[in-house]
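From the pipeline queue, job 12 of 40. The input is one protein chain; the requested action is below.

Action: predict structure.
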Amino acid sequence: MPNWSAEHVRLTVFPEEDLRHPDPNWWRALIGQDPQAKTIQQGIGIQESGAFRDNYCGLSLELQANRIDWLMAPLVRPNERPTSFPAFDSYPQAFIAFRELFERWLPTVPNIRRIAIGSVLTAQVADKAEGYRELGPLLPSVRLDPANSSDFSYSINRHATSPQACPNLHINRISSWSVALLTGIQIQIDGPGAGVSMRETGGVVSAIRLQLDINTAADRTGPLPNECVVPLFRELLTFAERIVEHGDIP
């Protein structure tokens, strides 16, 4: 298995009702303090963000009508020269922290109709060719020619059903695989009315990249039973973990 790191991990829930009013103040209840930034857009939603885990990780909450998004992501310093893809933790530690945090929050949300988890993971490699060689064992249905290929991207939805939490509930297991390059760019603005110049600052980094979206069926009507929400969340994470560890499996 590649040495995966988590660029971000996301939890999205779709409640049956609009939960923006009154402000549920979930951040303080979950983290134990107020967010560092909070924006309320009348008629649109609430956005909150801040650092947690000893200021090592960034967390954000976006609350819209009938949709709630939580995102765990790294705290990126814009002036730093990139030496690796941004990440807030290695795998599986990132998923463990994600599970522990939101298992406590999910029971506080009433009448959830749909759940989705998403993540982007990267594993650094020397170059594109090595990245393709690393992807080979993870994608048994794909034949890659590392030396004579480029611009590879592979995405698939492996359909499944909930094993136990909510029997017969349809689940989408979407995974997207590629090799990505990261390089620093310096932007210079010469003055009012002048042009903008850009130049690469060097330090190109290569990594295999895995994007996951594991979600319950969008066409479901009615809320999920309350008692199955947390077990279903765990099942979705288990599906994600199997893909991370074993690749594109049926």
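Job complete. The mean pLDDT is 90.
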